[in-house]
Known about the structure:
Distance between the termini: 26 Å
Number of helices: 8
Largest sheet: 5 strands, parallel
Strand content: 5-15%
Amino acid sequence: MKEGMAKENTTLLVLIGPMGAGKTTIGKLLAQQLSYQFFDSDAVIEQMTGARISWIFEKEGEAGFRERETKAIAELTQHTYSILATGGGAVVSPLNRAYLSRGIVIYLQASVEVQYERTYRDRQRPLLQTTNPKQRLQELFDSRHELYLATADIVVTTGYRSPKKMVEDILVALQDIGVTLPLNPVSQGNVAIHSVEVIAHTNKYP
């Protein structure tokens, strides 16, 4: 963790990073490994509004979506024994960054090439509905990368190892900064998996 920073919630792991970095996939595996709950902030927003993220962008614009995102993150970062996967733009808001920093923040860093390969067929990502999605991914990376770094306690590069290996890398990196995560004392593995299935969608948004 950053020197001199005390975390409010050391049993909350927060995954940040660009779209296509694998936050949902890796987050689910971490939740299974630790018997933690898994939350996807975009999926929770959809549940709260009863609408898809693309519809929210269309009707309320990005500003409207970001307002809803901040409300969701404020609530979700109060959970203990949990893994939280966030949308790629969550770090843009200073208030969001403060909320996310309640837990231990892990930046899943993915190259633009990896992001593009994983997202170019996906029509459910509002910020990529452009004539040149790869250029848009580069622009987003350029504008957000330093914010990811400033918010993160650890950085792990994705796209070159299997998700299971990535989970191992994350657990080792946590140990390297002096964090030993306890298993959830009130949950068995099947309960955590059930939470993953109920709360997390397969769709990922910006």
